[in-house]
Protein: Two component transcriptional regulator, LuxR family
Organism: Bradyrhizobium erythrophlei
Amino acid sequence: MNESDQPIVAVIDDDESVRESLRGLLETISLQVALFRSVEAFLGANPPVLPSCIVLDVRLPGASGFELQKQLVAAHVDTPIVFITGHGDIPMSVRAMKAGAIEFLSKPFREQELLDAVRQGIERHRARAAQRRAWAQIHERFAVLTDREKEIMALLAGGRVSKQIAGQLGVSEVTVRVHRSQIMQKMGARSLTDLVRIADRLKTDDENPLDPVAEGPYDGPPRTSRTVKRVTRKQKGRGNLAK
């Protein structure tokens, strides 16, 4: 997907006059616009067009707008879609919105309605792109942790305190505290609660699993919501994470 500061809007409609009208409208707010008469033309573009938002007619020659939406969802492509149609009804609108569409507009629609929907789609795209970049950075940081630091991070995420971790790993509390300080710094975590959230997200990633050492009575970290609450209570009660 396009993640530059100059978003591209793909307009897919089989009516040339509609396409040109929408191009003129969207260019008034300084957007780049790519026009297509069908889903097949959009998917077969060379080079591919990677839009920040798609303005999509429901009924098209060949594959329908709904079929394109289904393909994008199946491919985990989260480009926001604004549907437009001259033959819409409530069930169609509900179907589109449930599948993640930004808006479902019936022709003729007000120009401002379309502009507002496209702006919302672009902002959503930018937010998702920023989130992807942030989590890519988290994975890069996690990769530079030592095996011991990953081990201690998993135990911290499970709600263990320094004394418990030291006992389980057979090291001193001072050693655990030093490792924890290094982990927090490397992961960019401002608090133990931040670290728990990061650890939980890493656990869901098959490429970078955060697998805790499950020796003795320790059976892995609990669900994040409970762990975060537990850590937050400890922070309030102790006021010192080093204890």
